[in-house]
Design a protein that fits this description.
By secondary structure, this protein is an all-alpha fold. About 80% of the residues lie in helices and about 0% in strands. The termini are far apart.
Length: about 120
Amino acid sequence: MDYLKAFAVGGLICVLGQILIDKTRLTPARILTSFVVLGVVLGAVGLYQPLVDFAGAGATVPISGFGFNLYNGVKTAVDRDGLLGILTGGFTVCAGGLGAAIFLSLLAGILGKSKDKK
């Protein structure tokens, strides 16, 4: 049942993004940043955590989950370090994922072969 809930919630988030792409004049970059900001705002008002508790990865894997993680990192860092945590919290919580993405991108670039577009 957990997989079904994760699939349904993650799918609905993606459907919302696709509807915004198809029916509005918003660029994908604006939609992406809107979803990140929405994750932060919903986390700040306490509405995203119940969604994470219900759907698990269905709520944390989409880009709105990244915004929610940024919010949690900043909140934790502010509680621990004071106002300096506003600047450091987001980096601390996302460092592992960003580091892995950079390393794997480098590895793919080294191992992959570029081809001409003919």
